[in-house]
Design a protein that fits this description.
By secondary structure, the chain is mainly beta. The protein folds into two domains: about 90 residues, Ribosomal Protein L25, Chain P (Beta Barrel), CATH 2.40.240.10; about 110 residues, Ribosomal protein L25, C-terminal domain (RNA Polymerase Alpha Subunit, Chain A, domain 2, Beta Complex), CATH 2.170.120. Helices cover about 5% and strands about 40% of the residues. A six-stranded mixed β-barrel has the order 1-3-2-6-5-4. Strand 4 and strand 5 form a beta hairpin. About 10% of the residues have low confidence.
Length: about 210
């Protein structure tokens, strides 16, 4: 089970035009939604939010306490809206999860180690898949899925989705034959699918089922 991050937020009564003043006061407006309950408007200090953003991925479980309430919400951080010029967070959503429900979501892949075969100047390591879709209970979902590439010792060796070890109680939803990584000669790169993407891309649409 991945560690849970503890975060405190405050109830929010400010809406509409008053949000600009709220941001100038050092707070970011937010909402807690999902879990079959009405949306809850909250606010979080900008510094606390920035620290949180540097530590989490879409499947980092957050234990969220609102004000002095004894009720704790188990959430994932979602939908961070940023200003075009300042790049400061303008609004965030916290997605409340049911701990007893299976959740389908995407988890970022992180390549670990070095591929010995890619040490040559005429060999390239390609990584066309940067996240995997999986199912599992929220407490079982990892922050990221690590992929060890140190076993790629020869040209044309590859790692497929089925080769990636998943935590207990987490199952793969994607095609098991999906290509995760391959080492190949440079002249063959043009024939491969585009491998562009961000390491921690936005999570795919999530569905929960009992």
């Amino acid at each position: 089970m991945a560690p849970v991050i503890q975060v405190n937020v405050e109830p929010r009564s400010v809406i509409g035009k008053g949000l600009s003043a709220l941001r100038r006061a050092g707070y970011t407006p937010a909402n807690i939604y999902g879990g079959g309950a009405p949306s809850i408007p909250v606010q979080i200090e900008v510094k606390a939010l920035q620290q949180l953003l540097s530590r989490v991925t879409p499947t980092t479980l957050i234990s969220l306490t609102v004000g002095t309430s004894e009720q704790v919400h188990q959430v994932f951080l979602r939908d961070v809206a940023q200003g075009w010029a300042s790049k400061q967070p303008l609004h965030v959503d916290f997605f409340a999860v049911r701990m007893d429900h299976v959740l389908r979501t995407s988890i970022p892949l992180v390549l670990r180690g070095e591929a010995p075969a890619a040490a040559s100047s005429n060999v390239l390591l390609i990584n066309p898949t940067t996240q995997l879709n999986v199912e599992g209970h929220p407490a079982d979902l990892p922050h990221v899925i690590e992929v060890d590439i140190s076993g790629l010792t020869a040209v044309d060796q590859e790692i497929l989705a089925r080769d990636v070890p998943l935590p207990a109680h987490v199952t793969l939803v994607d095609d098991p034959s999906a290509l995760i990584a391959r080492v190949q000669l440079v002249r063959g790169v043009a024939s491969e699918p585009a491998a562009e993407g961000v390491l921690f891309g936005a999570s795919a649409a999530e569905t929960a089922k009992p």
